[in-house]
Amino acid sequence: MVHAYILIQTEVGKSASVAKEIEQIPGVTQAEDVTGPYDVIVRAEAPTVDDLGKMVMSKVQAVDGITRTLTCPVVHF
């Protein structure tokens, strides 16, 4: 299983609604609106890196109000 953090920037005033909608996406384990350079931070998981990328591109980035995403896969050394 591949785990990742997805850092999201949203339109002004949209962070709460974006976080709430993203929480409903299969594979998302947590979505919280935060302060700082990013507006929402998401913890997600998928069977493979390819599946993770597909989820981000087809489901997460399709949420209304998102302006930018940065996906950070978790690594274990």
From TrEMBL:
Domain Transcription regulator AsnC/Lrp ligand binding: 6-74
SUPFAM superfamilies named in the record: Dimeric alpha+beta barrel
Gene3D superfamilies: 3.30.70.920
Name the UniProt record assigns to this protein: Lrp/AsnC ligand binding domain-containing protein
Source species, domain of life: Bacteria
